Amino acid sequence: MSKRKPLDNNEDLAKDFVFESSQSPTPDKKPKSKTTIESKNKTGSMSEKFKVAPKEPTVRLTVDLTETQHRKLSILAAKNGRKKAEIVRMLLDEALADIDD
């Protein structure tokens, strides 16, 4: 550890602090490793595979369910490992599939 400077002359300390920090050498940039570049390429191709069409704006809908309906919906969601909202959206999509825009 370096020896601590005495606090006798505060102006000198302030100047040293200000000017030494601005004159400090910049660290050398390390070349990027090939593994980093390869992983970026892999990530890029993976993101292309999972690219989804632009999302349509959403509208919030509040629905009153009976306790029985809610319990059954919760059980269905738990069994299938999906969110209740996903299940309701799928059911609505099926019900509205016959309607033309």
UniProtKB/TrEMBL annotation:
SUPFAM superfamilies: Ribbon-helix-helix. Gene3D superfamilies: Met repressor-like. InterPro entries: Arc_rbn_hlx_hlx, Ribbon_hlx_hlx. Residues 1-55 are annotated as: Disordered. GO terms for biological process: regulation of DNA-templated transcription. This is CopG family transcriptional regulator. Residues 1-18, 27-41 have a biased composition (Basic and acidic residues).
